[in-house]
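User: As part of a screening pipeline, I want to sanity-check one entry by hand. Below is the sequence and the SMILES for magnesium ion. Please return the complex as structure tokens so I can compare it with the automated output.
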Amino acid sequence: MARNTYKQDERLDEPFNFKHLLRAGVYIKKYAVKMIFALVISALGGAIGLLAPMLNQKALDDAIPNSNMRLLIILGIALAGTVVISVILTTIRSRIMIKVSQGIIYDIRKDIFAHLQKLSFQYYDDRPHGKILIRVVNYVNSVSDMLSNGLINVILEIFNLIFIVIFMFAVDVQLSLVVLCGVPVLAVFMLWIKNKQRKAWQAVSNKNSNLNAYLQENIVGARITQIFAREEYNAKVFEELSGDCRKTWMTAVRYNNLVWPGIDTISVIVRAAIFVFGMVVFSTAEGPAKTVGTIVAISSYASRFWQPIMNLGNIFNTFINNIAYLERIFQTLDEPVTVDDAENAGIMPEIKGNVEFKNVDFSYEEGKPVLKNVSFEVKPGQSVALVGPTGAGKSTIVSLISRFYNVNSGTVLIDGEDISKVTLHSLRSQMGIMLQDSFIFSGTIEDNIRYGKLDATEEEIRNAAKIVCADSFISAMEDGYKSEVRERGTTLSQGQKQLISFARTLISDPKILVLDEATSSIDVQTERALQTGLNNMMKGRTTFIIAHRLSTIKNCDIIMYIDDGGIVEAGTHEELLAKHGHYYHLYTAQMDEKGA
Ligand SMILES: Nc1ncnc2c1ncn2[C@@H]1O[C@H](COP(=O)(O)OP(=O)(O)OP(=O)(O)O)[C@@H](O)[C@H]1O
Ligand SMILES: [Mg+2]
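Assistant: Here is the complex for your manual check:
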């Protein structure tokens, strides 16, 4: 997948493709009965509302000229009745439809979120997160409206139009034909303006998506922005993106503003024609052929006649946009889960801890190999340290053990089982991984530790925290373990975050432990205290430790020096020192630094 950025528009100029709409049927099916009920109610309400001009006609032509008070009162009550019934039916409909559209939003969001959680790291590496967010939040909202109210409205408006025509012809055929003469003019105008509007709104949504992507990136990177005093530059980029949004929006609104005056003009001309034809053209020697009531009724139908046509045009437009959104949503749902359970994947038995790489090749991007033919074996319970220069591939090796990415060739085996043949859940649930950047979720500290074992008791949480030396700083906080931490743990120091992650990992009782720079931000004294806890934690578990501070890994059973896509040296601390190779140089350089 090509990488997308905030600078690139997403393609949204798809032709109207019913395929996506049909596929959306799965989300609508569940609510079909409710929707049909709403439709019937609305149709009924619409038909009742259309009786009004007829009642008016009767009043003008019959009751008033004949001073028939009784008829006038009955007609008045009937007129009021049509309004009341219409209102009641509309209210019932909107209640039903709110439930339906919220249900659809819920269902689609649930599916997208479940799918997003399964997508590999690579998916998130490849696109701005803001553009993923806008799909889950905005696109789903607007699509759900189309799938619920939109669909019903299409049917209703068509019914409405048919009813209006029938009622109108029932009142007077000749004048109705005059009204229909306006249709071709309207059609031409509509086709022109709708096309313009559609393009304009697509541009708006593209620019909004870009702005969203940029904004999201900058909220996350706000600190770096300030550190590098990039505010001014960023503001300029933002202004540009924002300006694009404004420009496209203004164009779209300009077209929107043309619609009603255009329609009104046509409508007024048609109504004038009704009067002219009704009073003059169709008149006979005895005077105008049409009664005042007829002319008023037809004129009233004529003005109602444009509304459904216009609405259908609007719905058509939103459909076009929304179908493009729907395509985005389905595209996200169809995004292949590249790292997924194999067919007939087995369950990883309880891990003893033998880890083996057999001729593993790996690259994040084609043509840029990161690991080349890597092979090694670690026995259960052994501790392995990975050292080497930045970008050598240490984190990559450990992320392959949990199968966060698939290897290009070769195999990763745990206890002799090829990890690509077992379920991800059975594999990962037995691994404890502390990544380079310890992520803290919003919630309490306790919640964050409990993330490792959902049914952990407070006692267990406290014990885990004690072992990793986190208890003292947590207890010193005002609310202790119940202290709220914000998203990404901004209220905690880097070291505190690492200690909490330690407790989280420990409590999950992993069979294989991976510590990627897990102690890099912890001060030397705490680290020393932590060492005992860490030793306890490592007992009986195969452990992989990546650390730049070599004092932390000196006692590991195996130290592997990684460089240039492979293992350059491997052995114990003493063996490697005796070798006078890469490790020796690295180690002596650090010792010198300390001495200096
Ligand atoms: N998600 C990614 N997409 C593309 N390339 C990546 C990705 N992650 C890492 N790389 C590249 O893979 C190589 C190995 O990265 P890795 O993170 O394994 O290094 P490392 O040894 O852990 O380095 P450090 O000590 O700095 O953490 C680097 O050249 C890096 O640029
Ligand atoms: Mg790393």
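Points to compare against the pipeline: Residues 18-334 form a domain with the ABC transporter transmembrane region fold fold (CATH 1.20.1560.10). The mean pLDDT is 85.
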